[in-house]
Amino acid sequence: MTFLVLQSVSKRFGAVTALDDIRLSVPQGSRIAILGPSGSGKTTLLRVVAGFEPPDAGCITLAGDVLADGRAAMPAHRRGVGVVAQDGALFPHLSVRDNIGFGLQNGDAGRGGRVAELMRLVELDGAMLDRRPDELSGGQQQRVALARAMARQPRLMLLDEPFSALDTALRASTRRAVSNVLRHAGITTVLVTHDQAEALSFADQVAVMRDGRLLQVGTPQDVYFRPVNREVAEFLGDAIITAAELANGTAACALGPIPMDSGHQVGPGTVMLRPEQIHLAAIAGEPGVPSCSRPCVGEILEAEFAGAVCTYVVRMLHPGPGPAGPLVIRQPSNRLLDVGTTVRVTVTGKAHVFAGPD
Amino acid sequence: MRSTPSPRGIWTVPGTAITVAAALVSLFSLVPLGFVAVVTVQTGWPTVAALVFRPRVGELLLNTVLLVACTVPLCIGLAVALAWLTERSDLPGSRLWAWLAVAPLSVPAFVHSYAWTTLVPGLHGLPAGVLISVAAYFAFLYLPIAAAMRRLDPALEDAAASLGLPPWRVFGRVVLPQLRLAICGGSLLVGLHLLAEYGLYGMVRFDTFTTAIVDQFQSSYNGPAANMLAGVLVACCLGLLALETWVRGGARYARVGSGAARAPARFRLGRATTACLLLPALVAAVTLGVPLVTLARWLVRGGAGVWRASEIGPALGQTLLLATAGGVLTTLASIPMAWLSVRAPGRLQRAVEAENYVVGSLPGVVVALALVTVTVRVAMPIYQTIVTILLAYALLFLPRAMLSLRASIAQAPVELEQAAAALGRPPGRALWATTIRLGAPGAAAGLALVSLGITNELTATMMLAPNGTQTLATMFWSYSAEIDYAAAAPYAAIMVLFALPLTWLLHAQSKRVAGR
Questions:
Q1: Cys-Cys with A157: which of A82, A176, B254, B397 at CB 3.0–4.6 Å?
Q2: ipTM rounded to 2 decimals
Q3: Do A98 and A118 lie in a common domain?
Q4: Same structural domain for residues A75 and A178?
């Protein structure tokens, strides 16, 4: 059942188009990540849904209630939408207790209990209740901000890059904690981020945004393995993109013939592989066959060791159809290959064919 | 081969010298407080009780309390409303209104009073005192509140709205609490001015401790009655300081989180725009229109005849001399303490600074009374000389000079001094080439502020200056006392002209502090 619906939402700031005809529907209880580089308009999208800015055009509904229809917008305080901002936006003049209880009625007898319950929910120690926000670590601040936003049992939760200000180790653990809390509460959530790993791991649906437009909306697996174009492919992670000759469900390219994921296309096209589909193995020592005469063989031109992974630049010795420069391939560094080694390139899985001309 | 510097580091010699200098300056600045204490003890309890517990003191106390209790809340309300309109709404011409709200500071308080009494001759007593005080001093609250509003992180207001608060409650629960520090600081400043001002209240015949002390002094010199009134006045000032510290509490409003704040959205006034324009227009008319129009009217009425070069020339010359000499002395005296507070903060430095803060809050009349007594008793040669009056200026305006200087020294990182030393400069020259050079703009701004203060100073100048000294302020004062308002007008006009550029500087500085 769709819950949050955006229909043709647009917003301009002067000459800049921040949102261009955004259409999106989010099912109830699901989590969607809006993924885009900075300046792509993703934060504007979130602010429009929160009610901090009115859209110029378009309609936003939440569970059938109209939040905004063109410039007529329901004010933020009546939407029942929770927001966790990038740096938490905790009130510096209030204690943790008063921050969490901010949205609750003052005279409410159950206020203290509710605050304590929220503290447990976000796994914070009750001893922190009387501290000031500036006495908390970044991760703790974000948990308080989440508890504060959840206090009013919002219908929808908006997270505006809430983990980006945290350092790497804290980011993962805070993300897991926030994710669990929201999952158990069954709150529909929109996460805005520029971190592809964060988007892929957090959400049921990922919407890739660029220059105010949504390029692709789909499951994390969809957008990662079957991106609509080169831009989306490269934004979501390392990609090996090469020209290929398509026929009979097979893409013939520099890496040899590879089964493709859509069978009907014929003729020249562009295919994409993820680095984890590719395996390099040294073949210099194999007896019998002269190595250079075999297909799918390449030579390592450069190698860069970076701990867990190693990046190789590989030149294919028998390039396939179309122009193919050296390929950049990242591999786990359990078996290091030296520069100059001849390697066999093996591909597992299918090659993804871009629908359009690239 | 170059000789190696001593291993004790480059601070040893200048550091000690600076500490000693700072200690001497702060010892000297204890003179007024020490005077009050010594005089109280010497007078003896029965006389003190007889002089303090009498109806006249009660009357003055009531007047003073009423004045503060009426003026400060009015100023706060007006300043918050105007700051919100100019900083957070789409009021047309908000930059102009912001400048017009600060500009009344360039009109000395007693010139405000002069304008109102000549415009509405019947004006007197508490209502007159409150009205003119609001006009003269509300900018002291507007400046910090507007700066604080510019610094507010709009994400907090968004967060409050998403938590279900309508806009007016967001203002009450999120915006106002964050203005608390600015409101407290500004209120203290206004309160201290109310306690210290003489000319403003003298002209509208409203008695405060300060006017009573000056009257006593003029009739009986430094009699015990004046001294005891000064003691009560000092107690009032200390009371205000304590009250402010208590209200401010331990609040720290550090912005949590990192990154630049989004520029706040301006509230759309819509159809209320016209009504909202009335407030700044009315304020500008009261605070700026009345003094300037009245002044212009007197100048026109007086014609060319009131510009008596034989009187204005010497007054201008003496004012400039006193302002420059006093400004230089005060700035020099502030260097050691400013340097210490940035480079070597510690317990001694904090104590010195707290003391300096208290001394800086003392009214000119107390400082003058103290210096009269001390010079008469122990330093007769400098009694009624230019030295005494310059010392009084230094005591009165030391905090102003220190604030400017400290801010700019803080912007010259110690690493620069060390880099200069590493490049082969001896300690003294390293200090000169880096910190002093970088601190120069701050010192210049401080000097300008002190000179402005001296130009408009009336009370201490009247009580301490050598016989025959006439400054712009004292000339203005004696002509107004003779009700020759036309002859007084040129002096007021010159003082306003001097103050205008400095007020502009103050306005620009407060914007720069806020990062805009």
A1: A82
A2: 0.76
A3: yes
A4: yes
